[in-house]
Amino acid sequence: xxxxxxxxxxxxxxxxxxxxxxxxxxxxxxxxxxxxxxxxxxxxxxxxxxxxxxxxxxxxxxxxxxxxxxxxxxxxxxxxxxxxxxxxxxxxxxxxxxxxxxxxxxxxxxxxxxxxxxxxxxxxxxxxxxxxxxxxxxxxxxxxxxxxxxxxxxxxxxxxxxxxxxxxxxxxxxxxxxxxxxxxxxxxxxxxxxxxxxxxxxxxxxxxxxxxxxxxxxxxxxxxxxxxxxxxxxxxxxxxxxxxxxxxxxxxxxxxxxxxxxxxxxxxxxxxxxxxxxxxxxxxxxxxxxxxxxxxxxxxxxxxxxxxxxxxxxxxxxxxxxxxxxxxxxxxxxxxxxxxxxxxxxxxxxxxxxxxxxxxxxxxxxxxxxxxxxxxxxxxxxxxxxxxxxxxxxxxxxxxxxxxxxxxxxxxxxxxxxxxxxxxxxxxxxxxxxxxxxxxxxxxxxxxxxxxxxxxxxxxxxxxxxxxxxxxxxxxxxxxxxxxxxxxxxxxxxxxxxxxxxxxxxxxxxxxxxxxxxxxxxxxxxxxxxxxxxxxxxxxxxxxxxxxxxxxxxxxxxxxxxxxxxxxxxxxxxxxxxxxxxxxxxxxxxxxxxxxxxxxxxxxxxxxxxxxxxxxxx
Length: 618
Fold this sequence. Notes:
Number of domains: 4
Radius of gyration: 27 Å
Domain C2H2-type: 473-501
Largest sheet: 5 strands, mixed
Distance between the termini: 5 Å
Shape: globular
Region (Disordered): 1-24
Keywords: Metal-binding, Zinc, Zinc-finger
Strand content: 5-15%
GO molecular function: zinc ion binding
Helix content: 40-55%
Protein name: C2H2-type domain-containing protein
Strand order of the largest sheet: 1-12-9-2-13
Low-confidence stretches: 1-19, 371-400, 521-551, 558-618
Mean pLDDT: 75
């Protein structure tokens, strides 16, 4: 599937060849090459000068990235306050639709069989009366379950493994097209839909998620017969045909199955749902008695209630509680985490159900999360990784109760202990939940009626109002006649509102530059995603010691290369940013991303790349 144009490929891609920012075209020197190419450098000064070189390099890359992409829609949709507000309005509409559909599904009993658990035997291949004691004390555990073949239908229903790609329309659009243009085309034909856009060089691929009840073949045929255009491009809509590949399911550490932890997660997920619902629905007339939490059945147990609340956070707010991430869309969340996290049934009560579903040790593969370091002795590394867990940095949820003491006390009643690595995993979940509860997720405000915009609009109206006679005034854009100039101005605002939007966008360019710059330092446009990721640079004198405030220093140097007269006095988003700047004392393997952290600085625009979601006709 490709979009069609009268322009040649040479014309289409010329601007990208000339202007495109390529992070690999000018990679930074490693420490060895830097020493070889620098004259008169002493061993004592080398680490400090190399760090200064890396900061200068990243500062220039940040500026070069902005200069290359500031006029492209993907960049403006991510950083410009005007488009961020439009995106938030689209999310509010999706929230209303998804909230209603999910409540109706619960009322109809369609989610009655939900059970987000896998047996201890399926993961570890054994039954054991002491599995609880063994599992709580494990410093490493099964973190990913891979199904070699598509699961049976009943497994999909119980574990909610349905891929959103199964009800998606695909369409390619040119790189100068905005999401709102696709929304305007679709809203007259499809009542409920969500949009996710994958960025490509020279174009954008739009994923249009619709309810499963929508006939994809029928709606795509209807849209194609209408011959929709964006510029010179004819849009061709086609159903997505996802590849039936292996299904990857994340697994929580065993401690998440303890009754005390389930109660804690129930409490936190309830608070998160209340907070996010209230924030999104502010200003809407919604019956609080019809809220999701009030619609939960009274005859379900705590585990089923927690499963429903976890699914609600994922499907309605695009927030993976155990995965510690809130994404801009459900497609984006699925791309990163798949169907989400499952808890472990330590008593293997669910084993007979798994056998009926075709889930056995012979058809699944299990990956384990490990704290081991290949260059050091296993025991030494385990000991070193346990250091620092009890540091002052690791105890920061006072306002939400002493959850760690509560869990350890409850577990110790039966003579069990919890490994510090599992406590650390819970600590990360708690930290992220705390950040969500304390963060305002609204987009940055932009005053569309400020003096600058009004002045520019008046100038535009004067230029586009023609006086033919004392009581004959004409709109320059459409030649329509009016009896007074004030009616021409009203006409311009109502019928040519896109011109006013253009003025608003141009007036907010300095705000966009602010947001882009501050995303590397003290603030973020969307506090729940890394806008432009700058991995920590390790001190050359120690492989385990990151340079403090590196991102802030690099951003400051990038700002010095910009016109300061166009910048605001401070960030638009202000709040507690210690969460983003926190660094661990030890290198470790993330349990959800079991790869060692990078030690080399790389400027990674993760938003401008092809996604990992799979489809077979692009």
